[in-house]
Design goal:
By secondary structure, the protein is α+β, with helices and mostly antiparallel strands. It contains 3 helices and 6 strands. The chain starts with a strand and ends in a 5-residue tail after the last helix.
């Protein structure tokens, strides 16, 4: 039985096996979504053809490098069964703070990765003399 409620501060509160849990909701940034997946059926024909083509190309590249690979890797297909825009992070007796790994991962690292990959100033150009 799981019945989270909001406490007087607006945080989530629930009990699991008699232990009090306090939580907070974390919203994913725009352009992101969380997915709940399950292992789907094995490769379908179109995916198998694409996978076979990629494997042949990989084998050709490996033969050129002198490395041979005898094992064929199994391709697993994941099927999305649900998605979400927010999730709850739970702590024992206290609400997880901003330094919690899950909270930090969403609030800081996604923004950091976006900034790192955004088009902008070329660092090498900035280091040239005369600039």
């Amino acid at each position: 039985y799981w019945a989270p409620e909001h406490d007087k501060d607006g945080n989530l509160e629930a009990y699991f096996r008699g232990r009090k849990l306090k939580g907070r909701k974390v919203t994913l940034p725009n352009g992101y979504k969380g997915s709940v997946v399950k292992e789907g059926a094995k490769e379908d024909d179109s995916l198998k053809r694409n996978t076979d083509r990629l494997r042949r190309k990989q084998l050709e590249e490996e033969e050129m490098d002198g490395d041979e690979k005898d094992e064929e890797e199994e391709v697993k297909v994941l099927e999305e069964v649900a998605n979400f825009k927010e999730f709850a992070v739970w702590g024992h007796e206290t609400v997880p703070e901003g330094d919690d790994a899950f909270v930090k991962g969403v609030e800081e690292w996604i923004a950091f990765a976006a900034a790192m990959h955004a088009p902008g100033i070329d660092v090498q150009d900035e280091q040239k003399p005369g600039r």
